[in-house]
Design a protein that fits this description.
The chain is α/β, with parallel strands linked by helices. The protein has one domain: 2-Layer Sandwich (Endonuclease, Chain A). It is built from seven helices and seven strands; from the N terminus they run H-E-H-E-H-E-H-H-E-E-E-H-E-H. Strands 1-7-6-5-2-3-4 form a seven-stranded mixed sheet, with helices on both faces. Strand 2, helix 3 and strand 3 form a beta-alpha-beta unit. The protein is globular, with a radius of gyration of 16 Å. The protein starts with a helix and ends with a helix.
Length: 179
Amino acid sequence: MSILDAFNGLDTYRAQPAAPGYPTNLRHLFAPIDQVHEALVSLCGSATLSIAAAMYGWDDDEIDALFRAKLESDVPVSLSLDKSQAGGVHEKAILAKWKADQIGNSVAIGKSSKGAISHDKMIVLDGQVTIAGSTNLSESGESKQNNECLIVFDAVFAAEARARIDVIHDEMLMQMGAA
């Protein structure tokens, strides 16, 4: 399925249909009423060129496996993860599955440039789709807590988010190198 097809299918994961006149390049999903996890799996699974993420919480086995499968199929994957969250027991187990020397794989773990938590929840897919909002990638964040997931299909919007993710990633790589 193409990324455009996956984006156009996002309405099937909503509890309520979008209002008339809803912008065609935006989708807004809300946990716990919408099927946020299923929508994210569908959308991320459609990426064919690249995946870049800056995430506070990384605790979803299925999405982690999906990202690693993309990497195995030669889709470059960049993860920038908050140090306090990546240090959890389950998160450590998930991250241990990543192959540090695999081409196209870059996982950076650190803090904000000011030494605080890195609280972003952003994913950019194929330079076209941006996923943002308050949703952590965890069962609770995707299906139990009140969270929003904003999905934007726009290359300019995605370029802005990707540029920020890349800066965060570089900062975290430097923090890791300094440690």
